[in-house]
């Protein structure tokens, strides 16, 4: 586990600390700060006097203006990520993600169990990634920190949707399946743009997934995936100062030439021409 010095990243409106170091001030409680708590050992947490018993490998999502108290006396392994709406909100999809049941449900907090709760996976996907980005400068660090939060939120949404799919898939609402497909694409597009990749995760055939996608979006599954990749790429081109090669890497391309060809194919313009439009 990283120590407090390793976790000092110097970003405004985003922070990460160990559970043992977590302190919440009255000004924190009054602010629009969101919390994601990752547990390595069993613990009881009170959120506005509502008690949550968490086991190792679980995540707890807590929205703004909630008082958090760890009931265990001894320091417990795990992390607390905190961030504000000002840090996270950068697109319309971010608004939907943040203003969701993860933070604004009937309960004061939401418990999720998934791969992000695995200690080794979390350390690699979140902690080590942030640590490596820190040496590349504040702009890269800001982007990576945002991606890390996004990954955890997508995991949370996916797990909540999956619970609904498992109980309703046979009878069911195609919209639920399509919504889960949408969430999965945003979560994994850097890893894969293959229709079969997402079909396997949803326990569908590629053909069935394409039929559902066409019925709900008017696009094939492949076109839908490509559309999300294009939108995210254009967003970075227009709203960041990252180089085209850096953006191609962040989007999931190993070759910048392939990235340029992809953007030209889907938009009719080379990437740098989209950058010229950001001030227009």
Largest sheet, strands/sense/barrel: 5 strands, antiparallel
Strand order of the largest sheet: 1-7-2-5-8
Write down how many β-strands occur, each being a DSSP E stretch of 2 or more residues: 8
- Regions with little confidence, pLDDT below 50 for 5+ residues: 1-6, 165-172
CATH architecture of the largest domain: Sandwich
Shape by Cα distribution: globular
Q: Per DSSP, what share of the residues sits in E-state strands of 2 or more residues?
A: 15-25%
Assembly state here? Answer: single chain
**Taking all residues together, what is the mean pLDDT?**
83
Spell the H/E element sequence. EHEEEEEEHHHEHHHHHHHHH
Specify the CATH class of the largest domain: Mainly Beta
Distance between the termini: 46 Å
Q: Secondary-structure blueprint of this entry?
A:
Layout: E1 14-18, H1 26-30, E2 33-39, E3 43-47, E4 50-54, E5 58-62, E6 68-70, E7 78-84, H2 85-88, H3 92-98, H4 101-104, E8 109-113, H5 119-134, H6 138-168, H7 174-188, H8 195-201, H9 206-217, H10 221-239, H11 244-251, H12 256-267, H13 271-276
Antiparallel strand pairs: 1-7, 2-5, 2-7, 3-4, 3-6, 5-8
Protein name: Helix-turn-helix protein
Organism: Sphingobacterium siyangense
Pfam families: HTH_18
């Amino acid at each position: 586990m990283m120590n407090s010095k390793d976790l000092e990243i110097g970003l405004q409106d985003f922070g990460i600390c160990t559970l043992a170091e977590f302190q919440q001030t009255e000004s924190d409680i009054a602010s629009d700060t969101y919390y994601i708590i990752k547990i390595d050992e069993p613990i009881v947490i009170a959120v506005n006097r509502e008690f949550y018993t968490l086991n190792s490998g679980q995540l707890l999502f807590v929205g703004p203006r909630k008082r958090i108290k760890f009931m265990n006396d001894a320091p417990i392994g795990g992390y607390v990520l905190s961030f504000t709406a000002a840090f996270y909100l950068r697109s319309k999809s971010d608004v939907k993600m943040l203003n969701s049941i993860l933070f604004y449900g009937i309960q004061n907090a939401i418990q999720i169990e998934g791969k992000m709760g695995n200690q080794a996976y979390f350390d690699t996907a979140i902690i080590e990634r942030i640590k490596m980005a820190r040496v590349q400068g504040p702009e890269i660090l800001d982007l990576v920190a945002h991606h890390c939060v996004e990954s955890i939120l997508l995991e949370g949404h996916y797990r909540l949707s999956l619970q609904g799919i498992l109980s309703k898939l046979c009878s069911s609402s195609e919209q639920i399946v399509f919504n889960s497909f949408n969430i999965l694409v945003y979560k994994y597009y850097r890893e894969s743009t293959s229709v079969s990749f997402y079909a396997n995760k949803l326990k569908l055939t590629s053909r069935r997934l394409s039929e559902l996608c066409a019925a709900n979006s008017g696009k094939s599954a492949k076109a839908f995936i490509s559309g999300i990749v294009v939108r995210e790429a254009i967003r970075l081109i227009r709203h960041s100062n990252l180089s085209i090669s850096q953006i191609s890497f962040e989007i999931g391309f190993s070759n910048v030439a392939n990235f340029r060809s992809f953007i030209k194919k889907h938009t009719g313009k080379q990437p740098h021409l989209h950058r010229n439009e950001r001030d227009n």
